[in-house]
Amino acid sequence: MHVEIPPPFDFGLTLERFKAFGPDPVNLWRDGAFRRVFAGRAAVLREAPGGVLVEPADPELAEPVRRFLGASFDLAAFDRFAAGDPVLARLAVELRGLRPALLPDPFEMLVTSVTAQQISLRAALAIRRRFVERYATAFDGVHPFPARAAIADVGPADLVELGFSRRKADYVVAVARSDVDLEALGKLPDDEIRAVLTALPGIGDWTVDWFLARHLGRPRAWAAGDLGLRKALAAFYLGGREPSIPEARALGERLGPHANLAAHYLLVGLRLLPRKVPRTFRGDSLSRRFAREDC
Predict the structure, then answer these.
(1) pLDDT digits (tens, 9 = 90+) for 254-263
(2) CB 142 within 8 A of CB 36
(3) H-helix or E-strand spanning residue 35
(4) Listed residue (221, 254, 258) closest to 78, CA to CA
(5) pLDDT (tens digit, 9 = 90+) per residue, 40-66?
(6) Cis geometry, peptide bond prior to residue 189 (ω within 30 degrees of 0)
(7) Which of 49, 36, 55 is nearest to 9 (CA)?
């Protein structure tokens, strides 16, 4: 079954982050194809002109796949905005077709963020891999993410055995056992989602920012406290000087409805184009704003 994705669309760039830090049993690359469970069905995605080929050819998979592959992002509007900034303009060209993938399961997104708090993404993935393999059974070669109800019956000590810190184990179990309707959060505005989630143990602004960005695809989502994003800002705009969180947040506000896409392009650019950041890539309009405006 062929599923169309709005152009521009680059299959490899869109799914690159799922192989950047090691094998991921939930988002699995194998033999040039991508595998994931959607709505209880294991699907194989392959690159195809104008979109992807999906197996099995079940029409009910089309919309979940489109959403996952970032079909809702308005890349044309982003390109027009990026044209006014030398850094983003170049990234938009070099990374043309990058559509940030959106995790479909809100519980998966929260657990993924909690495991990544204050450790490397490789270490977080290794812990999450053990978690997935313990609490979810693979079928057709790929694991679904563990169900929230299953983790609600798990004790924090069981997660500590898998490499979670005791605090993070407590957080994950608390989210699983909470009475928050995670599926309904998408109907709320950003500030209300933040209020609901930060009331849960271990969920702070950084985790909410990525929930808004990588689960809901909210256009203004911007993880100002993310170390990787601040390193990208340092490399591309500030001559190596890492901005403070307030400085990074101020820049995100200036990006307006293009902040989410800008963050992804900066992060992927830093990872894939590290040797293509000459001095002429800096000193642009946004970095001059850092210098002359009070952040």
Answers:
(1) 999 999 999 9
(2) yes
(3) strand 33-38
(4) 258
(5) 999 999 999 999 999 999 999 999 999
(6) no
(7) 49
